Amino acid sequence: NMSEEQKPVAPAAEQQEENPEAEADIHFEPIVQLQEVEVKTGEDDEDCLFKIRAKLFRFDSAAKEWKERGTGDVKFLKHKENGKVRLLMRRDKILKICANHPVFPHIKLEEHAGSDRAFTYATKDFADEELKDEIFAIKFANADNAAKFKEQFESAQKENEKLASGESKGSEAEKEDAGDEKKEE
Asked: Residue 110's closest CA among 61, 53, 70, 150?
């Protein structure tokens, strides 16, 4: 049997459990007000010819090993005015650039370690805001995606080769193009 003193305690406890947020109506004002900022990606003057998910690695010659550069969408972008095609890859979520280079006609896309879904190639890259020689390995979810990438890569090379043969501008113009992209970011 319950005593008279214990009876009122039980209903009050039950009432609290039903609505635990009744007393917790607290509001915090943000310390800093952020303004919306328009971010220029540097891709405004370009059309995306092709986009596919991939994982990118770069060869670290000092450590003599492959290091992961990031996973995200790799895109072929064609400039609306000069017609040049470049490869741009940004990491998921943070959108940090992990590859940014013209698709030079002389780049040799080779199967990586006998895999039908990965390629390696060497090029001058501008992802770190300075032109650097890099060796990349790019890996796809399956062989079909790898084949589509290779087809687009070779198509972009042919397009850039046609432009190069019709132009007298050398690699200096390509460096400037890569530099312009970074300044706009």
From this structure: 150
